[in-house]
C-alpha cells in the first residue's frame, strides 16, 4: 500500500497524458512543427513516468538480476529528463518567438550542459557521479547529483526568463499560462528534492503539459471539419500573434480557388464535391514544405502561407502544385479533372493591413481564373 501511495500520482499523470496524447493526435494539426514538438515532449514525459514508476517498484528488492535493470532504468530516467527540459525550453521559444531561430553555434552552446549531464549519468554506474545502486538494490544520490539538478532547472529557468522578457509580446492569458508551465516543474522538483522519495517532478511537468495543450487548442482555434487543415479562425489567430510580435516580414501567400466545383456538385452530387475539396487539399499538402500552412478560407477557397525571402519561392511552390495537379489528373479514374486558379504575392509595407493584402492576392487569383476561361472559350 505504501508503494502504491508513492507511485499513484505518476499513474494518474500517465493516464492523463495518454488521454492528451490521443486528443492531440485527433485535434491538433500534425503538419504544424510546434504541435509535433509538443507531441514528442508528451511522449518523452510518458516514458519518464514509466521509468520512474518502474524504478520505484523494483527499488529495495533483493534479487541480484534486478540491479542491472535498475541501473538501466535510471540511466534512461536521468538522460531523458535533461533532454526533456532542454526541448521544453525550445518549444516555448518557438511559441513565443516563432520566426527567430538560434544560430548553430548558439544551439550547440545551449546543449553543452545537457551533454555534460548525459555523460555523467552514463558514467554513474562506475563512478557514482549522479546516483548509484547498492548491493541491496537501493537507489542513492551521488556526490554530483546537484550538477544534474542545476542543469535540469537551468533550462526551466530559461523558460521563465524568456516568458518574462517577452511579456509585452504576449496576451495576459498567454503570459499566465506560460508562467504556470515553467513554474509547475520547479515547484514539483523543489518538493521532491526536499522530501526525498516523493515523486512530483515529472508528474507536475505532465500536468503543466495538460495546461499547455489548452493553449495549443486555442492557438489552432479549430481545424476545418472537412479537410483537417487550418480553418479561417486558426489563420486569423496566427496572424494576430504575428502582428503582436511585429513579425510579418517574409510572409508569402498563395490564394487558391478550385476550378469548376459547382459543375462537379451539379453533375456528380455534393458528396463528390466534398471529395474533390479533400482531394485538392491533399494534393497541395503533399507538395508544400512542412513549415508551410494551408488554410481553408471557406467553400472552395484556400490559401497557402509560406515563409519566403523572395518571390522565387512562391514561383517554385506554384510550379510544384500545378505539376502535382497534372500528375493527379493523369492517374485519376475520376470523370472530371481537378485544378485551381492561383494568385500569389509577398506581404510588404505597401499594404496597410492583412485584409488589404488578402484582397490583393484574391484579385490576382480571379484574374488568373478569368484568363483561363477566356483561353477555354
From TrEMBL:
This is Diguanylate cyclase (GGDEF)-like protein. One of its GO terms (molecular function) is diguanylate cyclase activity. One of its GO terms (cellular component) is plasma membrane. The keyword Transmembrane helix applies. It comes from Lachnotalea glycerini. It comes from the Bacteria. Keywords: Membrane, Transmembrane, Transmembrane helix. GO terms for biological process: cell adhesion involved in single-species biofilm formation; negative regulation of bacterial-type flagellum-dependent cell motility. Residues 249-377 form the GGDEF domain. InterPro entries: Diguanylate_Cyclase, GGDEF_dom, Nucleotide_cyclase, Rev_trsase/Diguanyl_cyclase. The chain crosses the membrane at residues 71-96, 108-133, 145-166, 200-216. Signal peptide: none annotated.
Amino acid at each position: 500500500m505504501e508503494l502504491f501511495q508513492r507511485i499513484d500520482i505518476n499513474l494518474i499523470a500517465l493516464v492523463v497524458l495518454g488521454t492528451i496524447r490521443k486528443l492531440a493526435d485527433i485535434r491538433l494539426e500534425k503538419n504544424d512543427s510546434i504541435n509535433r514538438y509538443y507531441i514528442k515532449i508528451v511522449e518523452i514525459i510518458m516514458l519518464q513516468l514509466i521509468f520512474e514508476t518502474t524504478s520505484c517498484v523494483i527499488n529495495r528488492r533483493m534479487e541480484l538480476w534486478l540491479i542491472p535493470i535498475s541501473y538501466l532504468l535510471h540511466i534512461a530516467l536521468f538522460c531523458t529528463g535533461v533532454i526533456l527540459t532542454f526541448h521544453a525550453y525550445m518549444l516555448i521559444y518557438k511559441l513565443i518567438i516563432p520566426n527567430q531561430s538560434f544560430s548553430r553555434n548558439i544551439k550547440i552552446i545551449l546543449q553543452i550542459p545537457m551533454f555534460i549531464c548525459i555523460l555523467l549519468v552514463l558514467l554513474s554506474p562506475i563512478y557514482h557521479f549522479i546516483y548509484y545502486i547498492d548491493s541491496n538494490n537501493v537507489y542513492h544520490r551521488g556526490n554530483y547529483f546537484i550538477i544534474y539538478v542545476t542543469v535540469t532547472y537551468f533550462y526551466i529557468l530559461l523558460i521563465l526568463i524568456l516568458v518574462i522578457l517577452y511579456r509585452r509580446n504576449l496576451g495576459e492569458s498567454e503570459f499566465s499560462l506560460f508562467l504556470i508551465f515553467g513554474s509547475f516543474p520547479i515547484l514539483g522538483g523543489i518538493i521532491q528534492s526536499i522530501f526525498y522519495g516523493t515523486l512530483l517532478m515529472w508528474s507536475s511537468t505532465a500536468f503543466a503539459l495538460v495546461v499547455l495543450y489548452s493553449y495549443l487548442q486555442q492557438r489552432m482555434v479549430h481545424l476545418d471539419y472537412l479537410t483537417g487543415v487550418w480553418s479561417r479562425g486558426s489563420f486569423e489567430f496566427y496572424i494576430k500573434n504575428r502582428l503582436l510580435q511585429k513579425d510579418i516580414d517574409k510572409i508569402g501567400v498563395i490564394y487558391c480557388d478550385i476550378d469548376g466545383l459547382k459543375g462537379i456538385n451539379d453533375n456528380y452530387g455534393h458528396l463528390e464535391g466534398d471529395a474533390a475539396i479533400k482531394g485538392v487539399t491533399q494534393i497541395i499538402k503533399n507538395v508544400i514544405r512542412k513549415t508551410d500552412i494551408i488554410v481553408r478560407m471557406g467553400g472552395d477557397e484556400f490559401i497557402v502561407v509560406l515563409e519566403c525571402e523572395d518571390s522565387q519561392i512562391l514561383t517554385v511552390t506554384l510550379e510544384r502544385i500545378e505539376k502535382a495537379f497534372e500528375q493527379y489528373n493523369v492517374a485519376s479514374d475520376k470523370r472530371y479533372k481537378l485544378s485551381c486558379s492561383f494568385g500569389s504575392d509577398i506581404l510588404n509595407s505597401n499594404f496597410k493591413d492583412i485584409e488589404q493584402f488578402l484582397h490583393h492576392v484574391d484579385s490576382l487569383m480571379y484574374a488568373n481564373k478569368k484568363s483561363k476561361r477566356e483561353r477555354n472559350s
